Amino acid sequence: METKKQKLLLELSINDESYELAVGPQETLLEVLRNHLGLTGTKEGCDTGECGSCTVLIDGKPVLSCLTLALNCRNKKIVTIEGLGKEGAMTIVQNAFLEKGAVQCGFCTPGMVLATTALLEEMPAPSDRETKKALEGHLCRCTGYNKILEAVGLAVARSSGGSAGT
Q: Which pLDDT tens digit goes with each residue over 117-139?
């Protein structure tokens, strides 16, 4: 006999919008974003926290949504790749990734862009070592990372005073 799983009412703040939905106690933020809200820019890669494809920003910090229970996201500000640009305009980081060809297949791109955005908000002019450290948990099978590092460098050059996310 199968037992019915209890769902709990949850309010989430995602991309400056409020959502109220019923979720299971074991549902991850990744599952809620993709399956309940249709925010498929957050990619499902390894499901074990190894690839970085599911990265979102929670209160400005990069977090792996596949390892984060949705219920633990109450009273937190969540930003996905869909919420990064304003009014259809891309951010400095997004533009730099596009211009430097750091998008390739695009699977790792949302996580890389969000991690880069958080990095540049925290430190507007990171060293190469700091950049590599910030992106070390993100796997890319297409670019070989050189184009990604070039894109971060371009975003740093174009941003002023830590406004890389705008």
A: 999 999 999 999 999 999 999 99
Rounded Cα distance, 155 and 119, in Å: 11
- What is the CB neighbour count within 10 angstroms for residue 17? 10
Nearest 5°: the CA angle 14, 138, 42 is 30
Calculate ∠ Cα 89-85-75, nearest 5°. 160
The 61-64 sheet, strands edge to edge: 17-23, 8-14, 77-79, 55-58, 61-64
pLDDT tens digits along 5-52: 799 999 999 999 999 999 999 999 999 999 999 999 999 999 999 999
- How far apart (Å, rounded) are the C-alpha atoms in residues 69 and 165? 26
Strand partners, 69: 28
Distances (CA, A) of 101 to 9, 95, 97, 147, 149: 42, 10, 6, 6, 11
- Long-range CB pairs of 29-37 (<8 Å, 24+ gap) are 29/56, 29/63, 29/65, 29/66, 29/68, 29/69, 29/70, 29/73, 29/78, 30/54, 30/65, 30/66, 30/68, 31/70, 32/70, 33/65, 33/80
